[in-house]
Amino acid sequence: MTPLISTKKYRILVVEDNPGDFALVEDFLCSQPDEFELTHAKTYKQVRAALNDPQKCFDAILLDLSLPDMQGMALISEISTLDLPIPVIVLTGYSDMSFGVRSLSMGISDYLLKDELDPTNLYKSIVYSVERKRSVSALATSQKKYSELFHLSPLPMLVFDQETSQILDANKAALKQYRYTHSELLAMHIEELYATGDTAPREMEPEKGKTSLQQQGIYQHRCKDGKLIKVDILSNNIEFKSRPAMVILANDVTERLDYIKAIEAQNDKLAEISWMQSHLVRAPVARLLALTQLFSASKDASEKEEMAEYILKSAQELDEVIKHITISTGIVINDNLKKSEMLSKTTN
C-alpha cells in the first residue's frame, strides 16, 4: 500500500460502522472543489484487508473509534503499530480532552468531534494533514539521502558549526584519515585539525549560479598520531539540525604533491643532463675533431706525438663526461620508477 502523489484527487479510507455517519462524510466531501474517492470499511479486519490490497492506495484514513471488532485506545494503538505513510484522522463522539491529546501523541494527525463537524473543517483537516505528512516524508527522505551520501562517501567529509566551529559530524572516510573515533572528533573544534599557521574556512559567499562544493585550497592537517598531511579542501554552506554549518571535503593529497615535487626535481635533473650533452660533451668532441685533422696533416713526428697526448686527454675528458651522464640518467630512471609506483598506489 503506497500513498498517492496527486494533490488534486484524494483517496480516503473511511472507517465507520454507522451508515448514517458515512453518508454524512460522503456528502460533506462531495461539496468540496477537490475530488474525493472514498473506500468504506466497517471493521478493523476490513481496514487491514484494504491496506494490504496492492490494487488500492490511499492519501488518508478517517477513523471512527467504535468498531465492532476493536474500539478506543486499543484501536489507535493497533493503527499506530502499522507505521503508515499516510495521516490518520480520528472522527469520534468522545469529547474527552485527555483522550484526544494522548491520541495525537501516538501519531494521530488530527482529532475531530462528530458533533462539531462541518464540510469546511473536514475538508481542511484532510488537506492539511495530507500535505503536512507529505512534507514530513519528503524531509525525512532528503535527510536519509544526505546521511547515506555523507557517511558512505569514499572521500573524507566533516561538518562543523559556523558560529562555534564545533565539529558536528564526520564520515567513515574522515575517521580513517585522521585516526580519531567519531566521538573524539565530535568533541573537537575544526581548528584543532589544522596545523599551526593554517585556519579553517568560514562562511563563504557562494559563486553565482553554483550550489556545489567550492575550492578553498590546500591546507596542512594534523592526524591523531601527530602525522601532518596536506589536504585539498572543498566546502559549502549548509544548514545542519537548524544551525548554520559548513561541510568540507578534505582529500589527502600529500603523496600526490610529493610526487609532483619529485617530478619537478627530475625535470631539473634532466635539464642539467641536457645542458651537459650540449656543452660538456661538445667541447672535448670538438677538440678531438680538430686534433685528428691536425694529426693527419702533420708530418713532424714530435708534433704528432704531442697531438696524440692531447687527443688522449680529450678522449679521457669525454669518457668522464659520458660516465657522469650515464650515472645521472640512471638516477632519474630509478626515481621515475619509484614515483610511478607511488602514483599507482595513490590512485588505487
TrEMBL record:
* Domain Response regulatory, first and last residues per copy: 11-129
An annotated GO BP? regulation of DNA-templated transcription
| Signal peptide from the UniProt entry | none
Report whether Phosphoprotein shows up as a keyword of the record: yes
| GO MF annotations in UniProt | phosphorelay response regulator activity; transcription cis-regulatory region binding
Q: Which UniProt keywords apply?
A: DNA-binding, Phosphoprotein, Transcription, Transcription regulation, Two-component regulatory system
InterPro entries, alphabetically? Answer: CheY-like_superfamily (IPR011006), PAS (IPR000014), PAS-like_dom_sf (IPR035965), Sig_transdc_resp-reg_receiver (IPR001789), WalR-like (IPR039420)
Keyword Phosphoprotein set for record: yes
Superkingdom field: Bacteria
In the record, 4-aspartylphosphate modifications are located at: D64
Q: Which GO terms describe its cellular component?
A: cytosol; protein-DNA complex
The protein's matches in Pfam families, at most eight in alphabetical order, are given as:
PAS_8, Response_reg
Question: Which PANTHER family has this protein been placed in?
Answer: REGULATOR OF RPOS, TWO-COMPONENT RESPONSE REGULATOR ORR33
Kindly provide the name given to this protein in its UniProt entry: Response regulatory domain-containing protein
Q: Tell me the organism.
A: Mucilaginibacter pedocola
